[in-house]
Amino acid sequence: MSLVIYNYLKREKEPFVPVVEGRVHMYVCGPTVYDHAHLGHAKTYVAFDVVVRWLRYSGYKVRYVQNITDVGHLLDDGEDRILKGARRERVEPMELVERYMRSYFEDMDALGVQRPDISPRASGHIPEQIEMIKLLIEKGYAYEVNGSVYFSVEKFPEYGKLSGRRIEEMEAGKRVAVREEKRHPMDFALWIKAPENHILKWPSPWGWGYPGWHIECSAMSTKYLGHTFDIHGGGVDNIFPHNECEIAQSEAAYGVPFANYWMLTGSLLVNGVKMSKSLGNFVTIKDALKKHRAEALRFFILSNKYNSPADYSEAVLEAATKGWERLYNGAQRVRRLLDHPEQIITSRDSTPEMTANLIEALDQYRMKFVSAMNDDFNTPLAIGSLQDMTTDVNRWIDKGIATREVLEQAADIYRAFGGDVLGLLRWEATEGSGGNAQREAALIELLIELRAEARKAKDYARADAIRQRLANLGIILEDTPSGTTWRLAS
Ligand SMILES: [Zn+2]
Fold first, then answer.
1. pLDDT higher than threshold 50 for residue 433
2. Ligand 1 center to residue 28 CA distance, Å?
3. CA of 299 to the centre of ligand 1 (A)
4. Which residue, 120, 166, 262, 455, has fewest beta-carbon neighbours within 10 Å?
C-alpha cells in the first residue's frame, strides 16, 4: 500500500517516487502578507499541513518550504499590494509585512497548522533572484528594456503545460494593459524598474528596481530544495500565470524538470459563491474563529478532498462542529476509561475470542485510514473511518465488551490518526506535555471531584451550582453507576 498522488501536471494519479529515497522536498506558495489571512488560505495550508504530517507519519524526512511574499505581488492595476496596504494603514511597508506575517502565523497556529521548516521572505532573497535573472538573460530567455527585465515566453515552447493554456489563446484574455516595451504581450516581468519615489527597491545590474512576483518562488525553492524537487503545492487560483511562470523560469534557467508532482488545492466558496474582495464575501480566519472552534474549521476543511472546492456556510460549519465533537467525545470516553480502569465494565459477552475479534475490527479501521490517505490524501474517507470506528467503540463500551486491551488499541488510533496525522484531536497527541485541552480536562475532573464531595456532605445546592455552571460553559456532566463522566454539549 504505497502513496499515490494526483499529479496536476500530468492530470493523473501516479505512484509517489521521491528524488532521493526516504526524503521529500516540498514547496508551497505562501501568502502575500498585506492583510489578514482568509478562509481560502486556511483551506490550502491546512490541506498541505496534513500532507506533510502524513508524509512524516509514513517515515519520510520532509523539508517543507513555504514562502512569504513581501514585495512584487502586483494588483491588476500594477500597484504593489504591500505598498497599497502600507498606505492604507499609514505604516512603513516592512511594518505592514511584519504585522500581517505575525497575524498569519497566529491564525495558522490556532488552526493547528505546523510551521513550515523554512519560511523564506522574498525581500530577503533579492540577490538570489537577481542571479537567476542574470542567468536567464545569459541563456537568451530574458531581455532588458529601460531598466526592466522580461521573460520571453516564445523562447520557452512548453509555456502553458501546467495550466493547459496556449500562448495564442492567452493573448485574448489578457487584462493588464500591455506594456509597449514587451516584445510579446504575454512576456512577464522578472525585474521591474522602480519609479523615482518608490519605497521598496534594490540596486541591480539594470538599475534600481524590484523583482516580479513569480521569480521569488523559483529562486527560493531552488536555494532550499534544489533544481528538481518532489512536490510543488499551491491554490488552484494561482496556476496561471504564477505557477506557469515559475516552471518557465526554473526549467529555462537550469534545463531540468522543476517539480515532479504538482498538487493544487480547490477553491473555497462561501454559500456556494467564490470568495472575492469585490463581492464582499471575504471571511477572515480570525472572524471565522470568533464563531467556530478551530477544530471544527479544520474538520470542515478536511471533510473535503484537498483538490476539491469546499463550500463554507453556517450550516456546514454546524455539522462539522457536531462531527468533530462526536469524534472528540469518543476519544475522551476511551481515554477516561483508560485513566480509570476500575470504571471499565465487562459483561458476560466479553470473552478472549470477542476481544480478539474487536481488535481485528480495529485493525480494519486502521487499514482503511491508511489506504485512504495513501490514495492521494483522501481525508474525507480517512475521517469517515474514524467516525465509523467511534460508532463501533461506543457500542462496544455500552455492551460491556470493550476490554482494556481493545480500548488501548482504539486510543492508539485516535492519537496517531486523529491527533498526529489529521490534527483534529491535536491535544490528544501531546499527552503529558500539558496542552491546553489536557489542562481543561484535568480542571473539569477536579470540579467533578469537588461536586462529589459536596454531595457527600449533603451540600446539594453547591453540587448543583457546579453542574449548572459547567453546563453554561457547554460541559455536560452525566452521572452513571460507575461514576460521573463529562462530555461537550453538541
Ligand atoms: Zn509561488
1. no
2. 7
3. 26
4. 166
Domain 280-431: CATH superfamily is: Isoleucyl-tRNA Synthetase; Domain 1 (1.10.730.10)
Distance 13 CA to ligand 1 centre (A): 23
Distance from C-alpha of 155 to C-alpha of 304, rounded to nearest angstrom: 40
H/E stretch holding 393 reads helix 379-399
CA 183/CA 431 separation, integer angstroms:
61
Q: CB neighbours of 151 closer than 8 A, spacing ≥ 6?
A: 136, 141, 142, 187, 188, 189, 190, 245, 248, 249, 252
Q: 469: CA distance to ligand 1 center in Å?
A: 50
Distance 40 CA to ligand 1 centre (A): 16
* CA of residue 261 to ligand 1 center, whole Å: 15
- pLDDT band at 6; cut points 50, 70, 90: very high
CA of 241 to the centre of ligand 1 (A): 10
- For 156, list phi and psi in degrees, rounded to 5: -120, 90
- Cα of 49 vs centre of ligand 1, distance in Å, is 17
23-28 vs 61-66, strand pairing mode: parallel
> For residue 30, how far is its CA from the centre of ligand 1 (angstroms)?
7
Give the pLDDT confidence score for residue 425 in this predicted structure.
93
Q: Which residues fall within 8 angstroms of residue 413, CB to CB, at 6 or more apart?
A: 362, 365, 366, 369, 386, 389
Ligand 1 center from residue 221 Cα (angstroms): 9
Per-residue DSSP letters for 284-352? BHHHHHHHS-HHHHHHHHHTS-TTS-EEE-HHHHHHHHHHHHHHHHHHHHHHHHHHSGGG----TT--H
How many angstroms is it from 287 CA to the middle of ligand 1?
26
Strand partners, 63: 25
Give the per-residue pLDDT at 78. 85
Domain residue limits, the chain: 18-265, 280-431, 436-490
Better pLDDT: 415 or 176: 415
Quote the longest CA-to-CA distance of the chain: 89
Domain covering 18-265 in this structure, CATH number: 3.40.50.620
Residue 432 has pLDDT above 50, yes or no: no
Model pLDDT for residues 111-126, shown as the tens digit of each residue: 999 999 999 999 999 9
CB atoms within 10 A of CB 199: 15
**What residues flank ion ligand 1 with Cβ within 5 A?**
29, 217
What pLDDT was estimated at residue 435? Answer: 53
Residue 214 C-alpha to ligand 1 middle, in angstroms?
6
Q: For 451, which DSSP code?
A: H
Candidates 274, 212, 200; CA nearest to 245 is 212
Assess contact for 250 and 139: CB atoms under 8 A. Answer: no
**pLDDT of the residue at 487:** 85
Q: Is the pLDDT of residue 357 over 60?
A: yes
> How many angstroms does the Cα of residue 262 sit away from the middle of ligand 1?
12
